[in-house]
Each structure stands twice: as C-alpha cells, then as structure tokens.
Amino acid sequence: MNILIVFSKALTLPVENNKSIKTYGLVLNKDRWEATPYKEAFLNYIRVVELMYKDGFTSNGGIKFEKNGEMTVYYGDLTWRSFETVVLICGVQYAIVGDCDELDKDDYQDDLFTNKDKWEEITKRKGLVWKR
Predict the structure, then answer these.
(1) Where are the domains of the chain?
(2) What is the value of pTM for the model shown?
(3) Which CA distances in Å does 110 have to 4, 55, 107?
(4) Distance (Å) of CA 131 to CA 43, 52, 69, 125
(5) What pairs with residue 29 in β-bridges?
(6) DSSP 131
(7) In 91-130, where does DSSP find H-type helix?
(8) Sign of the torsion angle spanned by Cα atoms 119, 120, 121, 125
(9) CA 79 to CA 18: how far, in whole Å?
C-alpha cells in the first residue's frame, strides 16, 4: 500500500543524467513512511533540492551540490541551511493525502507523482491540510 503526498505547486527535480522531471507530489510506501521519524527532514530535503536546482546547482549523490564548478554546498552546511530557511518560510507547501488507491502505475515515476490532471483534481478537494 502506498501513501500520497501532494505539493501545492509542481516541483522540478533533477533525475539521472542531468535531466529533470516535473512532479506534483510523492507516492511512497506507506509502511516505510509511517515508520520513519524523518518525515519533515525528507520533505524539506526534496523542496531544498528543487530550490537549489532552480538556482543552478547539480549533484551526483544528493549530499554534495555544485554550481558552475566554483561553489560547493554539502547537505546540512550553512549554505544548505539558508536554502532550507527559504523553503520553510515561503517554499512550496505539501499535504498528506493518505492512501492512494485511485492512482495507476502511469500516474507516477519511481516515487514522483507526475499526473497533472489527477493532481489538479486532488488539490481541489476540501479538507486537505497544507503544511510548510
């Protein structure tokens, strides 16, 4: 069983071979998601990576980020924290929808929810609790 987390706006995230993908949320294994104590950190990480990617940073492993071969940022360092602060204050919000029985395999790639039409339908529902 999977759990769906939607974003208030689409995020553009880097994937393999310096390509990018537009995602509207995450489709995660429910048991693993509920068991982890790092929910907030994971969601902040995704949103910070998106902001850094927009700013021109690239990464090969998710811990070290580089920009134009001149600037290096490591996960958790002072520069990372400045991006994280921006995300926490004015970044893309998210809502945990819950079980995603209505999604087909074509609606997501890896763990990234990619179906814009279903996202628009889901985000118009009443009762979603948006978090920063």
Answers:
(1) 2-123
(2) 0.89
(3) 13, 24, 10
(4) 10, 20, 35, 16
(5) 2
(6) B
(7) 116-123
(8) positive
(9) 22
The structure tokens listed for 40 are: 């907030």
Tracing tokens 């979603």 back to the chain, one arrives at 128
Report residue 54: phi and psi, to 5°.
-60, -30
Distance set, CA 112 to CA 7, 62, 68, 122 (Å): 11, 16, 27, 15
Spatial CA neighbour of 87 closest among 53, 129, 114: 53
Reported as a single tens digit per residue, the pLDDT across 4-37 is 999 999 999 988 877 899 999 999 999 999 999 9
Look at residues 67, 40, 69 and name the one whose alpha carbon lies nearest to residue 52.
67
